[in-house]
């Protein structure tokens, strides 16, 4: 609709301009004819009054029938045919007063508030040759030519004139040019939008195919390995040594972590939304499991938690809550140097469950605190580059929090540490 509106408006502006130009040309041509006839009649009276015709004496026309005399002081005394005869006679005898005709034209234009006259000329109608000119004849686009005035018997000659293009016509062209530029911009924006949608559609298809392939190639083998390790631990519990049991336990934890990362990657690549199964959850038991996990994975880290009595139970999804806390703690340990110290605090506030994960790490600059939640984004610092990761953990946390309808806040000071505070409505 907007395209059709702009196109129609542009056509309308062009049509109005052409009508106005035509109207101006007609008006200017009529003025040329009027001034030319007035000049020729005036010249003809003077020409005849000085003895070239016996009927003219001292500016008076004498009729032969009744010898009645009356003053000849206006060009309308001459008929149109006589005007053309007088012009032919003046032209053949080279008695056209160019300066006077030019002065009459300019004065008439000034009286009628018309644009200045640039030049005028008398041309041969058949050949187009310029016979007489006043001013420099130019074919510039900034000039507008009036409708020619006919001169001489048989209209053998034309009086042509060029005027400065009125401002209103330039304004019309300016508006039309703006309309064209805007229309081209609109068309280009439509093309860009189509290209963007097409590219996005293709990328989505690739991501969905990649997610399906990833699920087939990684998720199922990990699940098979995890089941095998768990069966091995259960069936051979009595014959395994303590060291072998520890190794199998570490394998199990690593496989669970790989499965967690695979689920996170699949959810992000597939742009899917987590499906929660919320129920009353023993928060303390979940925190114990988190501590047990990191005692095996990263025994050098000091992880502790504190839960207020009212926050000991909450309505949460067990799987996603556990993975969310694991991602926050894992990030806190990664970027806290050689002696990481992580604290987990849980409490209730205004019918919301609040969990805060605090560390003594490198801190996050203010300008980076919104970017860290983007998929695959990692800060470009030496400490971050030395650690392994894909930049997906906080993206997963943000997605879980958003699905809950909650909020996550970052409080950080470079060189001191960071706090991630998650608010989940109950």
Automatic annotation (TrEMBL):
Enzyme class, first EC level, given as a word: transferase
The keyword Calcium belongs to this UniProt entry's keyword annotation: no
Domain of life of the source: Bacteria
GO MF annotation list: phosphorelay response regulator activity; phosphorelay sensor kinase activity; protein kinase activator activity
Enzyme Commission no: 2.7.13.3
Transmembrane region(s): 167-192
UniProt key word Coiled coil: no
Assigned keywords, A-Z: Kinase, Membrane, Phosphoprotein, Transferase, Transmembrane, Transmembrane helix
Reactions catalysed according to its record: ATP + protein L-histidine = ADP + protein N-phospho-L-histidine
InterPro entries to which the protein is assigned, alphabetical: BphY/WalK/GraS-like, HATPase_C_sf, HATPase_dom, His_kinase_dom, HisK_dim/P_dom, Sig_transdc_His_kin-like_C
UniProt domain Histidine kinase: residue ranges: 213-426
GO biological process: osmosensory signaling via phosphorelay pathway
Protein name: histidine kinase
